[in-house]
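Worked example 2:
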Amino acid sequence: MLVACSGGADSMALASALAFEAPRLGIRAGGITVDHGLQYGSDDRAADVVARLAALGLDPVEAVAVRVAAASDRTAHGAPYAGGARRVGPEAAARDARYAALDEAAERLGAAAVLLGHTRDDQAETVLLGLARGSGIRSLSGMAAVSGDSGRYRRPFLQLDRQTARTACLAQSLPVWDDPHNTDPAYTRSRLRHEGLPALEKALGKGVVEALARTAQLSRDDADALDAWAAREEAAVRDETGELDCARLYALPAAVRRRILRRALVAAGAPGGSLFARHVEEVDRLITGWRGQRAINLPGKVEARRQGGRLVLRQG
């Protein structure tokens, strides 16, 4: 098992917890720090984190350097930029590079899981960012406790607040590194952390973080149920040729129908990271507001048209 550690309080507390528990559970535990190369002296910082992890008794420990691609030539999921895709900023580009490095390290070292130090405060911020994007209930569900291929990524601190992690480091005299990006107002999450959430707590009272984290879990439960419903209905709304039957789709609740449409569009070749709610809504109008519209062009060169009572999806 590996712990991803930036050297900050959250991940240092998690590294310490893993180092303490691993021998008692018979688990081999190591650590990885990712050097994004975005700041002067980042390689020295990475070497310092490696030394701290080794001092905790973790083995193996490594620093992995990554290149963060420019926002102009990447989409939200690291694919080449194409018309209609969303260009990502430095935060998302760094996240893509970091997860790619963690995936590679986990494969190379044979790790069963990678632990991430996200806290309840991170979860609250993620929910607010999803709310601002208007991305729907799945976005409001925030980060999952278990995610990634085969459940590789684990977030055991999602129920703990950020201050608890910092207090744990202070109690153990663990040195921590505070990333200056986390206080830089140029970054959206930083502004939310230092301006947005405090303003909400001032207006609404304490407990906003806990309420947002609870909203994430409730939203995740609802989204999982709707996804399962859509998966069950998908075969029933296809005709004998395998095409989607518009009348059968129309009879479904909108939340279920749009999930089926999104799944079908991705299966037809539309990149999931470039397929937004507005795209699915446009296709949905071929079902619910049919007035002889022309075909709709979608990311990935996918075309959606209504033809003979069927929704036909083709990649050009």
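The longest helix spans residues 208-234. The chain has eleven helices and ten strands.
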